Amino acid sequence: xxxxxxxxxxxxxxxxxxxxxxxxxxxxxxxxxxxxxxxxxxxxxxxxxxxxxxxxxxxxxxxxxxxxxxxxxxxxxxxxxxxxxxxxxxxxxxxxxxxxxxxxxxxxxx
Amino acid sequence: xxxxxxxxxxxxxxxxxxxxxxxxxxxxxxxxxxxxxxxxxxxxxxxxxxxxxxxxxxxxxxxxxxxxxxxxxxxxxxxxxxxxxxxxxxxxxxxxxxxxxxxxxxxxxxxxxxxxxx
Lengths: 110, 118
Hints:
Chain A is an all-beta fold. Chain A has no helices and 11 strands.
C-alpha cells in the first residue's frame, strides 16, 4: 500500500516562531489532508489539498503532486497550535480510505 | 459539510467486557470508516462499513473482536469485544463527505472515543 512519511517527528518552538512540516508519499493520490489532533484527541481538518496551495489564516499548505510531497506552514505560532499534526492520503489505487503518517508532535512554548 | 456525533466520548471498562461505540451522521453517506489510535501512535483503519452489507476488515482486525453494524445510511456502531488492556485506544469514525468533496474537504471525523481498559 501507499507509504506516508512525516518530518520532523517532534518540533519545539517558541511562541511567535514559524515552522514547516513535511509529508512525503510513495504513490499518486486522489486526496491529501492535513489534520491537527488536539490534546483531547479530536481530529481537526486543516486542509484538503491533493495539489496546489491553500491558505487559512496563519496556516498554509502546498502539495506538489508530481514530486509526491506536501508542506504545512505555520506562521507566528501560538501555544494553542500545540498538538500532533497528521498528513493523510488516499492513494489512487487504494480505494476509499485514508492512510496516515506517523505525525509531527508540535510543542509551542510561551 | 457532514457533522458526526460520536458517543461515548470516553469510558473506563473492565477487562473481559464489551463496549459499543455509536456514530450518527447528519446526512446520508455510502461508507463509514472506523479507525483505532493506540497511545502515542498514528491512526489505523479497522474496517469500512457499507449499509446493507458486511463490513470489510483490514488485515489484523477480525469481526469477532470488532463487530460492526450499519443499519442505515446515517448510523453505525463499532463494538470492542472481550476487552483487554491492549484495547485501550482512541476509536474514531469517519465519513467521506460527498458534499464536502464538492467543496474539497475530503474525510470528516467524529470526536473520538477514548477507551481505557483496566
